[in-house]
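Continuing the batch. This is chain 6 of the set; chains 1 through 5 are on the previous pages. Same settings as before, nothing changed between runs. Recording input and output for traceability.
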Amino acid sequence: MCDFRLHKTALFLLCILLSACDRSAQQDGSAGPTRLIPKPCWFETDNSWPVTQCFMMEVPEDYAKPSQRKIQFPVVRFIANEPDAGKYPLLHLGAGGPGASLGLEPENASDWLWINYAAMTVDDGRDLIIMDPRGTGMAQPRLTCSEFIEDAQTAFRRKLSSDEEARVFTFSMERCYSRLDKAADLAQYNSAIIARDVEALRQQMGVEKFNLYGVSYASRYALTMARDYPDSVRALVLNSAVFPNIVYTQQLAKDSLAAYQRGLQACIEDKLCNSRYPDLGRRLENLVQTLDENPRTIPITHRFSDEEYPFVLTGQRLLRVLFQALYNENFYSDLPKVIEALETSDSADLKPVQAAVSHFMEIVLDPYFGDAAGVSHFCYEEAPFVDFDKARASAADSGILGGAVRSDIELMQVQCRIWAIPSAPLSESKAIATPLPVMLLHGGLDPVLAADDVDKARQKLPNHQWLLFPALAHDIISASNCAEEAAARFLDNPKEDQTDAVKACRREEIANKIPADGDAPPPGQYSHQD
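Output for chain 6:
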């Protein structure tokens, strides 16, 4: 729920859905007519890579109708440099979102696909298997709302009110649904169905058990797999975890305001930063109001054409840009610069603004993002359990910085009315108390998955390790070698407590990180694990 084209308009904020099959049908043990089809790898490798095998996994779109439409999703296996027969593979369940691509596409694939996880896998005798879930990235079909991309390219060049923007993107969603509903059963894209795909993949690969790695929303796939197919799983590593029993949409306003406040507080608590950029909270609120009345045009380079793109920055768009930027703790030192740069008419200091807007637009314009699959997830397994009246009341009390959330909540309900898919059973909103060993890695600065919520949710897991990194935000393993090394040791011996080792490692890691001149380091000087 979180790497998605989040706050793209928030049309795709959290996302969930499922098929009409009930749980008993899903757990009958039959994988149905499935095939693992070997393919020449569609991306380039070199001699520094592990031995690499590429496949397309073919499964029924609807397991209740195995003879009808088939779909495929990509699978890549990196063979351990020195394979250890006693070590089960690690399956990376995708980039999260839901709907985000892992980057397997020919123009995007690089050695980071395995280097980020080498200590846990190929360098430690364990194969690494990676995949895009059904509907996303290299999957066929890929459920991307090209209508949204086309409309966004036009809309973000113009000054539109929140209501006008909502009408534009509602029309996008209507056209997207009308097109994709003819080519796919949109009720078949959700966590429970993806878990069934993973079980079919395990059987086709002839693997006794998987170790599962889930980042952001893909962690929900891992938990669902542990619930529905516990005998097929050895251990779980959950990075920035999503839990089915946390109703994220209902507390979206509170969590968004907390994220902005953490970003501001990082400067307020630093004497040098606070003296250089005083009264940031008031200035941000004034800036949002000013930009809604008189937007600034921010020239950026279009991701796919290399032409200049004149992004019209309103106050509400600024809030979405900032929220997305706060997924990375390194943005904290840029936040005061962004606010100050936008307060003046001088265009000389717009580089941090341009960088944040460009990042936002890369997500908006990503042709491999499975928007429709993400909406299906949301409308199936999230929306049915949201008290939207409470969510609206919370957003109404959120002041100037809650304006974007107020629009988003309305759009979420609209998109589910358009999708008109069945709701998940109540069981999809319950805590998953798997006895399997679990490692939880979480950032204290995570803007969309509040650490306090995860701290409460983890209490339902009877056999887990909890590693909190106060100075990091979203996706801990990509930000800290200490986190990856801890996960590697956990996979070798899930019973060994990693708390002290990570604490010592983080002290050294932080001490060796030299911030740019004049930048304040992110808050939280030392890692802390409970």
